[in-house]
Amino acid sequence: MAAGKSWTKSLFVGLWTGLNFTRKLFFNLIFIILLIVIISAIMKDDNKITVPTDSALVLKLVGDVVIEKKAVDPFEEFMQQAFEDEEDSPEVLLQDVLLTIDNAKQDKRIKALVLDLHGLGGAGLDKLEQIAVALDSFKESEKPIFAIGDYFTQTQYYLASHADHIYLNPMGFMLFEGYGRYGTYFKSAIEKLKAETHVFKVGTYKSAVEPYIRDDMSDAAKVANKAWLDGMWSQYKTAVAAARGIDEGNFDEKLDVFLEKFEQVGGDFAKYALDFGWVDALKTREEVLQEIIATVGKNDDGTSFNGISYKNYLSIINPPLPTIETNTDKVGIVVAKGTILNGSKKPGEIGGDSTARLLRKARLDDSVKSVVLYVDSPGGSAFASEIIRQEVENLQAVGKPVVAVMSTYAASGGYWISAGADKIVAAPSTITGSIGIFGMFFTFENTLDYLGVHTDGVGTTEFAGMGVTRSLNPKMGEIMQRGIEHGYDQFISLVADKRGFTKEYVDSIAQGRVWIGDKALELGLVDDLGYLQDGIQAAAELASLQEYDTQYIKRSLSQSELFWKQLFQNAAVTFDGAFTLENDNALLDLVKTVTADIEAVSKLNDPKGVYAMCLTCEQ
Predict the structure, then answer these.
(1) What is the DSSP string of 371-415?
(2) What is the pLDDT of residues 587-602, one digit of tens each?
(3) Which of 351, 391, 401, 518 would bridge with 345, disulfide CB 3.0–4.6 Å?
(4) What domains are defined for the chain?
(5) Which member of 60, 127, 206, 345 is catalytic?
């Protein structure tokens, strides 16, 4: 028996030793391969990236256009590019795109611009407007812009419409669907789970909680949403029609009108696009390739046209080097992008503490004379929003003006943190307002009772033992509702005080209602229509600056973090790929949407459970 135990023990020890050796061998091999790749990428002269003479810049935008990228580990980013793994949610920085187009306009080596928009995902209309302006400016150099596509989404076509030549594959597809807001509603599902939903809110139009208390959109929410959606759609049509030189009536908004035209072209989407002026020609990939070759010539190996990719070009004109400090006065830019959450968050989300620290950093920097708060947020935690707003006040208290610049949206909590700025600049399409707050949580006493699980005990006060396993005391519900009402009063009082209105007026345009930028200007919620550069100029004027630099205020990286970031970024550009196509999976997309809706609520972490947030605003 002892011999058997000894043999079994030896077997397991041997297996464990073998597994341990295999694990170490595997990771050591990976490390050696990675080290060789990095050294080769950095040291080899033949890997040095240059801009070919008489070349085309391929503006291949893959992912959503944002004003701040989510934090990604440099090593993980490098490995994804090295092994051609797709990012789960790729992002494109708006400022990089604008810089690239502007630089290419002046670059004598660049003879043409190719818009490869297959991978372009979401982008707020404000961001598309700015890129379109840059494209129109590029055309002043008399260099042609080619927009090529096997298909064009509505977002992609906005940019394509500004090209000199729009080519669609003969088997291609494009369709304008307009703007809409169709949410997923869970009331019946929650009832089947026997969960109790407790909602506390102020505002007729505060519809963020509707998916959890209704099975459809309320009439009030439909009225409010239809108003700003119509405004955005009108802006889209006006801009695209002007770029293409066609009538706005060419947009088919009724199915019977589209069907009549569709029958005229025999059910051919590509021919529909050509016959009704949306594209200039139907061309295969090879035909497009040959036309661009005729414009800029062939590349060195003769396989394609002479060109350079967006990523490689950007790495040349904007290398990842540390910022060199100067004594010049500065306008600081603090980006507030994403959901507002309590605590510290990485870039891509707004942490009450972390964003407040950035504003404090700007306040303590003597070279920073004024600050632009660049907001792209549907809101979130009311407490975190107030922490950020207090830091805005602290900046003003030391004589540093603050200008809030609103990107795609600055609604609810996004408006809260902007309201106290010396000036507010919004894009015509910015989604803002939604001045209102809510609180919501679930209790599962009925669910647990159905399963035979119960909660009982004693406490020294009526507050003791409150939680998701017990029914909510009606008096406690009254207390929470009063707290929400007080929070709403704080919100409208803040706006009234900072914007010079009466509380009654603010209440009349608040109630959780969403407004589009040009309407917000009429209502006095913003001071001017414009974009980041307009906000920077306004901040400089308020600080009486004649000469100044701009500086993004970010968390300072340690020397170690900076080294690894530069190392991997320098190496990664050598793995820049070419063209990709994406497949759609409608069911998977639906699952992702529902999961995202639930996750958006589950990650909220206001200490009092009070939120100034517009879930329906997000695009």
Answers:
(1) EEEEEEE-EEEHHHHHHHHHHHHHHHHTT--EEEEEEEEEETHHH
(2) 445 555 555 555 555 5
(3) 351
(4) 55-179+232-317 (3.90.226.10), 330-557+604-617 (3.90.226.10)
(5) 206
